[in-house]
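fyi for ur records
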Amino acid sequence: MTVITAEEALKSREKFTNYIGKNAEPVIEEILKDYPHRVLHIVLPQLTPSSDFLLEELAKYSSIQKTYFFWFVANEKDWIFQAVRALNDGLKDNCGVFVIKAFLNGDEMGYECLLKPQIQEKKQRVVNTNTPAKQLQLEYWQAYFEKCDELQSEMQINPAPRHYQYIGIGKKGVQIMQTVSTVDKYIATELSINNDKSIFHKLEEHKEQIEKALGTLEWYIKDGVDSCKIRQKIYFDISMTEIRDAKVEEHIKLAENFKKVFSKYL
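which gave:
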């Protein structure tokens, strides 16, 4: 594989895009030290800045909540600041555009964040945990916690009145997500992949072997969205407490099997 130097990256649109895509993460981590967490980080490299490009990219993610956009450019244009400030003012508080200038610093690439969104962390919304759905979720996760403890399983969670639980599996950007649905009456295990479709495609190459071990799965990937998931449902109404223990154990075992099988290919 040919390594793109910083100098070469600043001479070609394609090389700039590839270079930034591979090197943006530590720059973003440094910028976000004092910012509230957001679900998605969308990297937008563009050697020569264009407002049309930025607007098109923002439109792709207009329905996604909690998103930061990082617009990496090599040329500093006066109109950028006015345009992006206006965009940030119009975006919801859970979104924001950062403008980052990339420049040659000796033999390496240097970065300067030219513009940041003024995002105020909203006061934490008080969730009514006394609704029937929230109470059912809490009771389910409490039963899950106890069964997980009994089984000495690594798929342990912290009970809370919500529909999901994340479990790390030792692979950056990949997690198991245990979910329940009181509306559609199912519990599910998902392999959640954040910001790296290449992982999804690598797993997809082994779909036949994976589904031979786990059964038929739902493979979710969407154009314009960097996160994707692979899911299996168990249809079960969590209000049916008489069979809940058995279903909880099945849910835990499914997560264990997900980790065991997918870890072979990650």
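The longest helix spans residues 132-151. thats all i got for now
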